[in-house]
Amino acid sequence: MVVIEKALLIIILLRLFSGSIELTAAALMFKFNDLEKAFYINTLLALVGPVVLIVTTGIALFGLAEKISVLRIICLFCGISLILFSLRAE
């Protein structure tokens, strides 16, 4: 029997949930067949991606806390912050 870490299982489930949201959004865009509604749905998706990124990274860091140095954790959070900042930059 394969044993899977609890943190890894939560990350996997969150990513499956996130993917399901993406597929549902694509199906809704197809169903509505309207550019304005597709734009609105896409805008809502822009909120889901960063939230899932932050939550899954936080769970992974919590699970790896004793294995990763503080400097690497700081670098990871700086990288995530830059990614989120670049999404807002024009």
Automatic annotation (TrEMBL):
Pfam families: DUF2619. InterPro entries: Uncharacterised_YqhV. Keywords: Membrane, Transmembrane, Transmembrane helix. It comes from the Bacteria. This is YqhV family protein. The chain crosses the membrane at residues 7-32, 38-62, 69-87.
